[in-house]
Design a protein that fits this description.
The relative contact order is 0.09. With 884 residues, this protein is an alpha/beta fold. Helix content is 25%, strand content 27%.
Length: 884
């Protein structure tokens, strides 16, 4: 019996160690360490404490507190975000939903690289603003989200858990409140072996010491006595980093660029307040009663003394002088693992309670041993100044056809570069490059996948500043979605993502496509370092850039548009672009259409000679007599060597995050509707970025994308309507001087349509011709019943008759940032409300101004139009047709 329990605990060690290797971000330049950062790392090596911060979204975390805990208190600090922020808005580009979630994931990772924390997630999908936790839990699978939270707690074993939000209405968002409620439940569930027992083959139950709410002035009433709360000053200055924790926090928070959260640094005292929620009460410190020394590991006191000695002798001008001492520390830590296992095996297990306590003691030792071994080896590498990177000759490698073993079309050359920048000799024992594997990763040819050849068989010694470059490797891949973000590999639901491999849950990213494994010997001890295989390029402006090696299908299929709208039975040309993942790919392309639709030709043969070559083909698609009114869907499918491929190729590129690659399904909405329009020329001034111009073109308008310098009176006169993109008054500073020109256009007979504007941070106090006050009011239930306040209002009647049917099938939300007050000169059009709330009447406000018309709308057209919602097209058409 004792042996079986030991194996369970050993599995816990292995999977926790495995997760640590993949839990950090991959696509970035190799990390370099300054002498002061090494000293900070040495000090952290002697601190055995852990904290987990819990909230709902990217940007909810308290970056100052995370920076303080990770760099001031030197504890392992994690941020668990329930969602990836998929349901928010995007200030820097057009990506929404899954694409936005990928961006915000990387922004969080960029933030953690600055503030020193680790990043974790649950499977919860950010479905948009939620007003109550009750609504949230009707869309999230509460048990699944709770299981993921418990999984992270059991993996990371935090001594202290902290929530950003209270478990009540003060949190202000259903997701916020839900995150705190889940944290309270997970605090106890993680310690209960009866809860989620399937996890116990990998991890052990864990009881954190306490759970606190990180409160502040924004949650309490004015004048409330804060002395009852535990408090700490997180505004200190860290001389080894040359920054205060407030300065670090500002840099970290400013990575959330898609949300416009650039922050200025705060310096000086910064008090943080904490209210107990569960567990032991702290009286003086967050970690009251927690032994954060090596004494918490049996036999660990000797390790602590060795680390103290290394710190005492540390020479910032010669960090390599600490390597010998760190190797002694490494040996001592390694011995603790075996000692703890031997002690566990020798115990007399006389009761279930003793058995559980023994298992937890062993798991505790394993956690800190593997954690500190990793830190120790990174410090050895840093002290040696070793530069290590593995770069591929191209950014992509093609997927191997499962039916072809031993083919050469999926090979790629990899250079592994190693430089020893210390006075200590470094002997290279072996270097290998292999595809990353995990249980169930490779369905076929599993043995072949593990035949990664060693590139260097004879040991080579590197002297000071000597470089070794080991070249050429052949790497095979069998998983079609290897490089797709792991939470997007299977279609999820509105509230939840699906994770194929259970052990990936909680991780910020998936596994890199390939890893270079380098074994070296230093002063007689062997060490192994893993680095992801990346592609490196040099941009003439930005300099060196890294991105992960990406596995691509032999052919990717991209449909040239988001939604295709048929206002009559006339055919439309639908372009499809084929992209070759390898040279010499050929096959046929066809469209799968719903009943009653036809495509000419029925299929198109293609042949792409070079890798990355693209070819755009066109289908003539037409609805027939049997085509149903409303929304349906088409899919593009390419067939190569008898295998069907129906995913596209999408890169997301911004300067503040590594390039991301997605493989979205090659599908697009088909919309057949009864639509009439007036006018022809539309001027469109883009704000934060949206797809509305394409929607206007789909319904037959000629759209001119405007720049601020194009907003002149003579130029605007030629447009039947001018439309301002989402958040234009938040992002275009020049509008504060160009507003008179826009209003002059309206006054002279123009039609100006302004889409939603965030209530905070407008470039001028009034965005309309008459006063209106923007707010955070919204209707989050996308299909909330709508009442027409004035049925004779032209916007509801011409050129299209708007009915309640036009508000069916909406996605995520009905509208947002509705005005809370407005001048009587604005006329309301419709009202709706979320359940239990007072009706909101400002989804559309229209005002006559001079000879023209001004329209403000908070309706979420920017979401509905790309999703192919028929009613959204009819409403937008009526808006741009007003007065014609």
């Amino acid at each position: 019996m004792r042996f079986r329990y030991f194996r369970t605990a050993l599995a816990a060690f292995l999977i926790t160690n495995y997760s640590l290797l993949i839990g950090t971000t991959h696509a970035q330049a190799p990390k370099t360490w300054s002498s002061s950062e090494i000293l900070l790392g040495l000090k952290k090596l002697n601190v055995l404490g852990s904290a987990l911060y819990v909230a709902a979204h990217p940007d909810d975390e308290n970056t100052r507190l995370i920076a303080y805990l990770a760099n001031g208190r030197l504890v392992e600090t994690g941020y668990l975000s329930c969602t990836r922020g998929d349901g928010g808005q995007n200030l820097i580009g057009p990506e929404l939903r899954e694409g936005l979630g990928v961006i915000r994931t990387q922004e969080l990772l960029a933030a953690r690289r600055i503030d020193g924390g680790r990043q974790f997630f649950t499977r919860a999908n950010d479905f948009g603003f939620s007003k109550t936790p009750e609504e949230t839990f009707t869309i999230w699978d509460k048990e699944q989200v709770l299981a993921d939270m418990v999984w992270v707690i059991r993996q990371r074993r935090p001594d202290v858990m902290i929530t950003r939000f209270p478990p009540d209405g003060r949190a202000g968002h259903g997701h916020h409140t839900a995150s705190a409620m889940l944290a309270i439940e997970a605090f106890s569930a993680a310690a209960d072996p009866k809860r989620f027992p399937e996890q116990l083959q990998y991890v052990q139950p864990w009881q954190a010491k306490r759970l606190l709410w990180n409160t502040g002035s924004f949650f309490v009433k004015a004048g409330e006595d804060m002395s009852q709360y535990l408090k700490l000053d997180a505004g200190g200055y860290n001389p080894l980093l040359g920054q205060s924790y407030g300065e670090i926090a500002a840099r970290s928070r400013s990575q959330h660029r898609s949300q416009g959260f650039g922050s200025s640094a705060q310096r000086g005292e910064a008090l943080e307040y904490f209210q107990p929620l569960k567990g032991d009460k702290a009286t003086t410190d967050l970690f009251d009663g927690v032994d954060m020394t090596w004494n918490r590991v049996p036999g660990g006191a000797a390790v602590g003394k060795l680390v103290d000695e290394v710190i005492r002798k540390y020479d910032p001008a010669n960090p390599s002088a600490s390597v010998a001492g760190l190797l002694k520390v490494r040996e001592a830590i390694n011995s603790l693992f075996q000692r703890a296992a031997d002690f566990h095996q020798s115990k007399e297990i006389s009761s279930e309670a003793i058995r559980i306590r023994s298992e937890n003691e062993l798991a505790e030792a394993h956690f800190w041993v593997q954690n500190k071994i990793q830190q120790n080896e990174e410090l050895i590498r840093a002290c040696l100044g070793i530069h290590l990177e593995a770069t591929a000759e191209a950014p992509t490698v093609p997927l191997m056809n499962k039916n072809i073993v031993g083919g050469i079309d999926n090979t790629i050359k990899v250079d592994v570069e190693i430089i020893n920048r210390s006075s200590i000799d470094v002997k290279i024992i072996s270097v290998a490059v292999e595809p990353n594997d995990y249980e169930g990763q490779f369905d076929n040819n599993k043995d072949i996948a593990h035949q990664a050849p060693s590139l260097r068989k004879e040991p080579t010694t590197l002297m000071r500043n000597e470089k070794a470059k080991i070249r050429s490797s052949q790497v095979g891949y069998w998983n079609e979605l290897k490089s797709q973000p792991y939470w997007l590999q299977k279609t999820g639901t509105t509230g939840m993502y699906v994770v194929v491999e259970p052990r990936q849950r909680g991780n910020a990213e998936g596994y890199p496509a390939a890893t270079a494994i380098v074994r070296i010997q230093v002063l007689g001890q062997a060490l192994t370092f893993d680095v992801p295989v990346q592609y490196k390029s040099t941009d003439p402006v930005e300099g060196e850039k890294y991105r992960l090696l990406t596995v691509v299908p032999p052919v990717a299929v991209n449909i040239g548009g988001h939604a295709f709208v048929f206002a009559d039975n006339q055919p439309k040309i639908i372009p499809v672009t084929l992209r070759a993942g390898k040279a010499g790919v050929k096959g046929t392309l066809a469209l799968n259409l719903p009943k009653g639709w036809t495509a000419e030709p029925a299929s198109i043969p293609f042949e792409l000679g070079a890798k990355d070559a693209e070819q755009t083909v066109q289908f003539r698609v037409q609805p027939g007599a049997g085509a149903a009114e409303g929304k349906s869907e088409l899919r593009a499918v390419a067939t190569v060597d008898g295998q069907a491929y129906s995913r596209g190729y999408q890169t997301i590129e911004y300067t503040h995050i590594p390039t991301q690659t997605l493989f979205p399904e090659a599908v697009a909405p088909l919309v057949k509707l009864d639509l009439r329009r007036k006018g022809q020329e539309i001027g469109y001034l883009m704000g934060a970025g949206d797809e509305v111009p394409d929607a206007l073109r789909q319904i037959g308008y000629t759209v001119t994308l405007l720049k601020p310098e194009d907003l002149t009176e003579p130029n605007l006169r030629r447009f039947d309507a001018v439309v301002l993109g989402v958040r234009a008054y938040n992002t275009l500073d020049r509008l504060k001087t160009l507003q008179p020109t826009l209003l002059k256009y309206v006054e002279q007979g123009g039609n100006l349509v302004v889409q939603y504007t965030v209530s905070r941070g407008t470039v001028l106090p009034q965005i309309g011709p008459y006063p209106l006050t923007l707010s955070t009011d919204r209707v989050t239930v996308e299909n909330a019943p709508v009442t027409f306040l004035n049925p004779s209002q032209p916007l509801l009647n011409t050129p299209n008759k708007i009915t309640s049917k036009d508000f069916e099938g909406w996605v995520q939300e009905q509208g947002l940032y509705y005005p809370s007050q407005w001048d009587p000169k604005y006329k309301t059009v419709l009202s709706s409300a979320d359940p239990g709330e007072k009706a909101k009447e400002s989804a559309i406000l229209v005002a006559d101004y001079g000879k023209g018309h001004y329209i403000y709308t908070g309706l979420s057209l920017f979401r509905e139009l790309p999703a192919g919602v028929p009613g959204a097209y009819r409403l937008l058409t009526n808006m741009v047709s007003l007065g014609k």
